[in-house]
Specification:
Elements (H helix, E strand, L loop, with lengths): L2 E5 L2 E4 L4 E8 L8 E6 L5 E7 L5 E3 L7 E5 L5 E6 L8 E9 L2 E4 L3 E6 L1
Parallel strand pairs: 2-11
Antiparallel strand pairs: 1-3, 3-8, 4-5, 4-9, 5-6, 7-8, 9-10, 9-11
Amino acid sequence: QVHVVESGGGLVQTGGSLTLSCSVSGHPGTRYAMAWFRRAPGKERELVAIISWMSDTYYSDPVKGRFRISRDNAKTTIYLQMTNLKPEDTAVYYCYANLNARDYWGQGTQVTVSS
């Protein structure tokens, strides 16, 4: 059974930093893309960043230059390093993995940026 588990959320002040982690277990192989999404209160879920199995990356405009997505050597864990955080980054952050054309989501981790 596939599990996608995030960790690392919390409360931080404006301008602070936070790193999220997400691990995939229960799936053989590593050739799959992973991503971070977020849902702010009262808003739709939006894409934050994507990383391919070859570690190619894409960032949404609101986080470009402030966030960095990376992948460990085993390819089963990704990270989202968030710097210069702003109150508008407050959201539940979800990890996503596309495994054999199926979508898998983590349970979400809350990130709150105080002004």
